[in-house]
Write a structure and sequence with these properties.
Elements (H helix, E strand, L loop, with lengths): L3 H18 L12 H10 L5 H14 L3 H5 L3 H8 L5 H18 L8 H4 L7 H12 L9 H9 L9 H11 L5 H14 L24
Helix pairs in contact: 2-8, 5-6, 9-11
Length: 216
């Protein structure tokens, strides 16, 4: 079984290669502040970032603050976000989170993991996105479908079921200073090269050091 030291070594190499490959890497969700990022991240569940960005262009022009969203009727928001899928659940989460921010945090998105997790519809992945991208706080690593897939294939984690357990593995193999960017880089690489069905091994810059394990 591979040692933690070996995984750390590979993680360091993968990070450096991907950083050179994607020098402009950043969060793909368009936003101007932490609240917009929170809403966009909720909308991104089971939906492409491209679709979310199309929807939020008009959405954020109409409704700018947590108070604006908190006043909305569910049917109104459902119509606005329907094309992102699972719109009823997302509406419930967005309205619930907006009301909680207004009632419990003075209308300002909280900046700690514990506080963010009290918001309806917010789990660790969403909280990590907001804390890392909006506030520059590395409290954990984002583990979405891309990060989960790539981290197993690349041998950075042996976890095959639970994102929370994989997050702990990744927090061990990457230094804290790289948690935020490592998540962005893995997501970008997952979208462009290391896809779920047809990973382009011949075009992959980390091909030489990747064990290419498939999820069991």
């Amino acid at each position: 079984m591979e040692s933690l030291a070996d995984k750390k070594k590979r993680a360091r190499k993968i990070f450096n290669i991907l950083k050179k490959t994607y020098p402009d890497c950043k969060c793909a969700l368009h936003h101007k502040n932490a609240f917009e990022l929170l809403i966009a991240t909720i909308l991104s569940a089971q939906c492409t970032d491209e679709r979310v960005n199309i929807v939020t262009v008009d959405l954020f022009k109409k409704y700018r603050t947590p108070a604006d969203f908190a006043k909305l009727r569910p049917a109104t928001l459902e119509k606005e976000i329907k094309s992102t899928g699972f719109y009823r659940n997302k509406t419930k989460s967005i309205l619930g989170a907006s009301k909680a921010i207004c009632e419990n945090f003075g209308g300002v998105v909280p900046q700690t993991m514990d506080e963010l997790l009290t918001l309806p519809g917010v789990a660790r992945k969403t909280a990590n996105v907001v804390l890392g991208t909006a506030f520059g706080k590395a409290t954990g690593m984002v583990v979405d479908t891309h990060v989960f897939r790539l981290s197993y294939r690349m041998g950075l984690s042996d976890e095959t079921k639970y994102p929370e357990k994989m997050e702990k593995d990744l927090m061990e193999v990457f230094p804290t200073s790289r948690w935020i960017m490592a998540g962005h880089l893995l997501i970008w690489h997952g979208r462009r090269i290391c896809s779920a069905r047809k990973p382009m091994h011949d075009e992959c810059p980390v091909e030489a050091i990747c064990p290419k394990r498939e999820k069991k």
